[in-house]
Design brief:
Structural class of chain A: mainly beta
Largest interface: A-B, 39 and 37 residues
Distance between the termini of chain B: 15 Å
CATH class of chain B: Mainly Beta
Number of strands of chain B: 12
Largest sheet of chain A: 8 strands, antiparallel
Number of helices of chain A: 0
Helix content of chain A: under 10%
Order of helices and strands of chain B: EEEEEEEEEEEE
Order of helices and strands of chain A: EEEEEEEEEEEE
Number of domains of chain B: 1
Strand content of chain A: over 45%
Number of helices of chain B: 0
Oligomer: heterodimer
Largest sheet of chain B: 8 strands, antiparallel
Strand order of the largest sheet of chain B: 1-12-3-8-9-10-5-6
Radius of gyration of chain A: 15 Å
Number of domains of chain A: 1
Radius of gyration of chain B: 15 Å
Structural class of chain B: mainly beta
Shape of chain A: globular
Shape of chain B: globular
Number of strands of chain A: 12
Chain lengths: 171, 172
């Protein structure tokens, strides 16, 4: 049956870590990253990077375009940039540290395993901050034709102390 | 076996609200909900509430929401609400049987008593012309939730509605 999810990797954070890396992408299927309950030590944005041989690619080859939804009275925010060192604000956009305020979201990963294609991501997230609710919707591309075997999440500063990160294959 | 597990499938008719109870548990952190066949006699918006672990619908004004409405025949709209008693505007739907389209939502951490309950939803429907909605929402209570309620802005009677609830299984 189409649309099934097969778990590839998971990590549940229970003490402070600076990043979470999930690997195991080894086919040309679409993969889905599901994230819930991120708790941070400081106000953070969430960063995502592709991995090769389990190591995050920090080269300045990340392009993205996103729409930031918010309820604090400000206009929805357009985020776009090229040649960055990370996909930014995934699952956490100014995530606050108040109890109950967590980062969450879903991302789809495309062409990661294909060495002759760029790696693409689409994602949607939601979290709270001091003035209300925020959520980023959009996508990006890592403009290097290489095989990538996973994805790394890291906070823009400090550490995260909680969160469940699970990588599924969509079959 | 798929890690996307069907927990509940409910079909109903001739009701103004639909309560889906006892679907959230410690077994899952993330849930996927699909809502289809929601035929209504009057054009309106489909809304959403949570049901707590005592079985009571949460009607307190503790919900925040932001949404982008994309219209095929007019300009796009940005919507935002704070401290309301439900999550509104999941879908903007007309009265024709062919108008309903569908809603897909993800619910995060509803059973947790240490996290707020968050949602992301998207819908596609027709109200004279096409309407697409992208929404985020939160119930600002650190309390355990066991289910949810589907309602509509006019308290009209759903001629029919089909709701499926899935859990995203995590195997440790």
């Amino acid at each position: 049956m189409a649309g099934q999810l097969i778990q590839v990797a998971t990590e549940t954070v229970t003490s402070a870590v600076a990043s979470v890396t999930l690997t195991g992408i080894d086919s040309d299927d679409v993969y889905m990253l599901a994230v819930s309950g991120i708790v941070s030590s400081a106000s953070i944005n969430g960063d995502l990077r592709v991995t090769t041989s389990g190591t995050a690619d920090t080269s300045a080859n990340y392009d993205y375009a996103m729409k930031g939804l918010r309820n604090d009275g400000g206009a929805f925010t357009n985020f776009s940039n090229t040649n960055q060192t990370t996909f930014t604000t995934a699952f956490a956009w100014s995530l606050f540290t108040t109890a109950g305020m967590t980062g969450n979201g879903i991302a789809y990963l495309y062409n990661f395993n294909n060495a002759s294609e760029y790696s693409f991501i689409s994602h949607e997230g939601v979290n709270s901050w001091q003035n209300g609710i925020l959520g980023m919707q959009g996508g990006g591309v890592h403009t290097v034709a290489q095989a990538c075997d996973g994805i790394q999440f890291s906070p823009s500063s400090g550490t995260i102390s909680s969160g469940t990160f699970t990588l599924y294959k969509v079959v | 076996m798929s890690n996307l597990r069907l927990i509940n499938e409910t079909t109903a008719s001739s009701i103004s609200t639909l309560n889906i109870t006892d679907v959230f548990s410690e077994k899952f952190d993330i849930y996927k909900i699909t809502i289809t066949d929601f035929d209504l006699p009057t054009a309106t918006y489909v809304n959403f509430r949570l049901i707590n672990s005592s079985g009571s619908v949460v009607t307190a004004s503790n919900y925040d929401r932001a949404g982008l409405q994309m219209n095929s025949d007019s300009s796009f709209g940005e919507g935002r609400s704070t401290n309301i008693s439900y999550l509104n505007y999941l879908a903007d739907v007309g009265t024709g049987v062919a108008d309903t389209g569908g809603i897909t939502s993800y619910i995060f951490n509803p059973y947790s008593s240490s996290s707020y309950t968050f949602s992301i939803s998207q819908s596609s429907s027709v109200r004279t012309n096409h309407r697409s909605m992208k929404n985020i929402g939160v119930l600002k209570q650190t309390a355990s939730m066991s289910g949810f309620q589907i309602l509509n802005a006019g308290n009209y009677t759903f001629d029919s509605i089909l709701v499926k609830t899935y859990g995203l299984r995590v195997d440790s």
